[in-house]
Request: fold
Amino acid sequence: MSVARLPTGGQVGRDRTLRFSFDGKSYEGLQGDTLASALLANGVHLVGRSFKYHRPRGIMTAGPEEPSALVTVRRDAARSTPNLRATQVELYDGLCAVSQNRWPSLRFDLGRLTELFSPLLPAGFYYKTFMWPRTAWHQLYEPLIRRMAGLGEAPLLPDPDRYAQQHAHCEVLVVGAGPAGLAAALAASRSGARVILCDERPRFGGSLLCDDRSRIDGLAATEWVTAAIAELAQNPRVRLLPRTTAFGYFPHNHLGLSERITDHLAEPPAGLARERLWQVRAQQVVLATGSIEQPLVFPGNDRPGVMLAGAALRYLKEQAVMPGRRVVIVTICDSAYRVAFEMQAAGARVAAIIDLRPDPSPAQPDGWQQRLRQAGIAVETAARVLRTRGRGHVSAVEIGRLDAAGLPTGQRSIDCDLLLVAGGFVPSVHLFSQSRGKLRYDEALQTYLPGDSAESERSAGACRGLLSGLAAALQDGAAAGAAAANASGCAGEEPRFEIIEDSTAATAGRLPRAEAAVSGPKAFVDFQHDVMLKDLDLAMREGFRSIEHIKRYTTTGMATDQGKTSNVNALHHAARGLGKPVPSVGLTTFRMPYTPITFASFAGQARGEIFDPVRRTPMHGWAVRQGAVFEDVGMWKRARFFPRSGEDMHAAVARECRAVREGCGVFDASTLGKIVVAGPGATAFMDRFYVNDWSKLAVGRCKYGVLLRDDGFVYDDGVVARLAEDRFHVTTTTGGAARVLAMMEDYRQTEWTDLDVWLTSTTEQWAVIAVQGPRARELLAPLVDGLDISAAALPHMAVVHGTLRGMPMMLFRVSFTGELGFEVNVPSDQGAAALDAICEAGKALGLTPYGTETMHVLRAEKGFIIIGQDTDGTVTPDDVGLTWAIGKAKPDFVGKRALARPAMHAPDRKQLVGLLTRDPRVVLEEGAQVVDVPGQAPPMKLIGHVTSSYASATLGRSIALAVVAGGRARIGQTLHVPMPGGEIPVEVCAPVFYDPKGARLNV
Amino acid sequence: MLLIRCPHCGERPEPEFAYGGEAHIARPADPAAVSDDDWAAYLYLRTNAKGVHAERWRHTRGCGRFFNALRDTTTDRFIATYKSGEKRPEGLR
Ligand SMILES: [Zn+2]
Reply:
């Protein structure tokens, strides 16, 4: 039998022992233990080292609020979870846990030396000590701090487990399955409402699980819990979710729940998800989240063996673990007395109750004083713990009183091996606050309670301040459950319970929170972040007045526990120090998650291959077979280049460019956005939307369209074909397809409701195969089933319908390369077959596949812009030389009015020009800045930047496009591109480097 | 995640929608007749309401239609949604 386990009692399975290890040492526990209760049963109190000072820390609580007992649980190299609260880790056979933040071992930790330097680590030390010199931060301070201050380590291997996600809808979601939550769920479910009841603990029942004296409806409390669960479980409209933390309350009653499915199992079945993330949309929410007991602040309050009184009661009643034999209890409220009675009854010696209140008895139930006398428990009133003693573990407390000047008097020492602390219960308003409900300060409880709701939500039981007694919580829960059911349209009735209450279970009484803290060395407020009372004092001395600022400066409440055991004490101390009432000091914000949630549960199935959708063209397999190197363009995979053996990108692109200029190349252009604009109003719509004049465009002809926003800046471009009088085939940039269609819909639906026109995305209807180069016609002519594609029949910028080896085809004579070119459009499912036919026919002509990189070089040689590369949302048509595209006679089009503003014609606007480096081998960097006066010291006067830059195989030299202030007037001038290696002289030229007259197009 | 009632489809979760900025800002019928300042105001000036705000939404991943909504920007509560072209409902706070 473990040293601290009682021979009987508790709710643990005693038929089998579970073996587990902590820091390599083997121990035994029981089914129903948490790691914390099992360690305490084995007499292990030292479980971790603190974040900043590496002070030894023990188990302070029994729940999610635990600030200190953080451990790593390891199943294997990849399944290692850091920073788990030992108080929430369910024990299983073979569990392996290790402590954190210690080196080389927990007992002998060199990091403890930092405590010697603690005067150097005051509040705000991040902001002060390490400001200067800058290099020392990277080389010295940060590595040092990272080694010495920290929590657990994340595993380096990918997470091998599966994580599920599920959406759920219900009339009533009840968060918390303590007395109030169970009563709410019973009331709501009896109305026929769909109910979801979740609780973070493995068993429902909450505080009833450690109450073996109260009776409900004639049953012992735990039996009543069993009966309530049975009733709920057999109702098909009720979903029970134990081990499920409601961690986030999002707008419109959307709550995030994290269900732990396998973490408590010794051998999780293969294929079972480790966790499930629930997204619940509830018509009504009942918050029954209970309350959290607070510690007290005094010197040495962090020593192992100091524990919250309510936590000790839970260990005693739930796991039959007595965490100490000689107990001192320090309290500011009545809850400690019940714990004293129970500890004493279970065999511990309660040496004293130290009650801060001068006369606690008037508010206490009759008979307490007699019971205390019978049990031989001495009560010291108006007293406090002045400090604790002990090496590693508490061995004695020094108690005394404070005189009017705040100086200690009447000190004496009491030996003990367990110091229980009862700082009063604070309603757990985290989720209420997350829901943006307004908190109000309650003077009696000296804490914040739920006020006005922002959502369809109600709080019930302890979380709304009903801290005194079971009957109040149960009946409040029942009322809330019935009201929630009614509000969701079901007929809820409030059940009445017959309750015989444990007379000692009162938890409140007067709460002298403000005077409770005792200053002195090592008086901790935030145990996880090692923030002491004196740090708060320092922050206030330095002028911080708002609790939000004090919090950030001292980092109190900013650890992974979000201050569940520190915010209230910090707030009261700050209010006292500033001489202001608590509500005027403010309240820090509660944020999701309530307790830490794994990243993996948010990711769910969206990992690896399916992290993000991938779009592949119908000819993707062909490109793979051709050895393409792909690049991501939006969600698309596009072939960037097709290296042959031994080629790097530069060589491959040079070869592909030559093939297109001298023979013919083939390119997959399927990703181009395609929108059909059709209907009687189609021409008017196009005239209003694009800058161009569409009325004169003949059916069967194409035009380069330019789209502006109404602010006058270029937004998209693309070739538009008129397929019929009332039908346009619009192409957009690959990345712009969705936003152009959205913008069209906006104007169509909300501005131009007079137009009868409809818009259809056809991007994925068509596979587009660009065949480009002087031999393109020669290649295609035999394939198009007798269609005349001669220069006379199908001139540049024309479109014709036909067939390609029997496949339906729209054939565009268009070119983004400057060469004779065609774009073969066939239905997507025939794209691969069409491409195979083209490639087969192209063998004799040396048809060469080319990718997006070659496409970029070829278009840059011709000065064709790429939206988003040569433009950036501040570029007018004139800036990039597209004024010619504007239909000037049109009274209006999107962007026309803005173009009339004087600033849009300023002569020093940045204009698109070409740049030729003096040394033809030098390729400028895209994004490099351009200056006109060489030799400037920084900051230089910048007049533009390089937008596109390539090595041109065709021209045998580098070329670049740039936007330069007043650029067109500078053609012929020499400018400079300052780079780390020196300034690069460049000559400004027109932005068309190859075939400026377009002779190669019109053949 | 907001729950938004499309006037054409009913309540749907926020990811089905795209926000469309402030509502009831009509593009001037004759832009040429508008001064530079007024055009700039049309383009850029918005009320940035704290409280009830009339705004456009589009049910992008549903019916595809634009509609208008009154939303309290301090609470995210939707007070009303109504079809494009309909008048802003009066008297709602
Ligand atoms: Zn809709």
Remarks:
- Chain A touches chain B at residues 250-254, 279, 281, 436, 454, 710-711, 742, 745-746, 749-751, 753, 891-892, 896-898, 900-902 (CB under 8 Å).
- The mean pLDDT of chain A is 93.
